[in-house]
Each structure stands twice: as structure tokens, then as C-alpha cells.
Amino acid sequence: xxxxxxxxxxxxxxxxxxxxxxxxxxxxxxxxxxxxxxxxxxxxxxxxxxxxxxxxxxxxxxxxxxxxxxxxxxxxxxxxxxxxxxxxxxxxxxxxxxxxxxxxxxxxxxxxxxxxxxxxxxxxxxxxxxxxxxxxxxxxxxxxxxxxxxxxxxxxxxxxxxxxxxxxxxxxxxxxxxxx
Length: 180
Fold this sequence. Notes:
By secondary structure, the protein is an alpha/beta fold. It is 31% helix and 12% strand. It is built from eight helices and seven strands, in the order ααβαβαβαβαβαβαβ. It has helices at 2-16, 24-35, 54-58, 76-79, 96-99, 118-121, 140-145, 162-166, and strands at residues 43-45, 65-67, 87-89, 107-109, 129-131, 151-153, 173-175. A seven-stranded parallel sheet has the order 1-2-3-4-5-6-7, with no helix packed on it.
């Protein structure tokens, strides 16, 4: 259907462009109207767009890949509805409450989100790739539970030990980043 092909191009344009204060309300209304039609969307990268709302995200329950792009409008309420996610890059607002429900995740990039702890990540036993980003609160408890990990990016986390790392027998790629 040509309307949907054109709509997707417009959708990508709206998300990629910065919205000024004078047209933000119009952009949010137009974006929401368009998003309700994207029920089959599987891959969404928000970029730096701040007009995408929690309500809009809640409608995209078929997403398999999602990058929140530092959008501070999102809450656990919307993320908890995305149970089909296999890939998540999150930066700011999500917590253990919603993350623990995403048991299909295979790839998780925590980035700068310091609201997530061992308590939710250790429940994501399907994870193949974990990037702890700037999160320094993860411990060996996470590694003991994630026996399927193939890729681990540690960065600034100094709480992982040799004991925890040695349990990751499927590990193929380990990046210690700035860890000591």
C-alpha cells in the first residue's frame, strides 16, 4: 500500500528532525496519529527525538528492536508492554520493574541508565550480548545467571570478578573498556 510506504518515510523524517517549540504540539499530534497505524513495526530507533510519547510507544507491541535515544518521556508502563523485544538500547528512564518482564531479550545495552540493577538483568536468561555501559552496580550475581552470554562489554564496572567471568563458558567477545 503506497500510503504506508510514504508514511514510513515521513515517520523516519519526523523522528530524525529536531522539533522546535512552535511546532512541537502539532508534531506530537501528527506522530501519534501516524504511530497508531504502525502496529506491525518491529524496529524503532528514536534518535534524539523528544516528541515521541509513552502513549505512542505503548502501542508498538510488535517491536523486536528498540533504542530509546535518551527520550525522557518514556516510563516503565510503556516498556513493560513490549514483551516481544529481543534488542534494547536504553539510556535513562527505565527501571528493574519493566526490564524484568522482557524475558525474550537477547541483546541489552544499558548505556547511561543507572536505574537498572542485578535484580532485573539476572532474570534475562536469554541474553547473548550485554553492554553494561556506565552502569557500575552490576555484580557477579548477574554473570552467574547469564550463562548464555557470548558478548560482554564491561566498561567502568569493577564489581565483576574472575569468578563471575569464569562462569561464562560461551563467551566469545569480552571488552573490559576502562575497568581496572
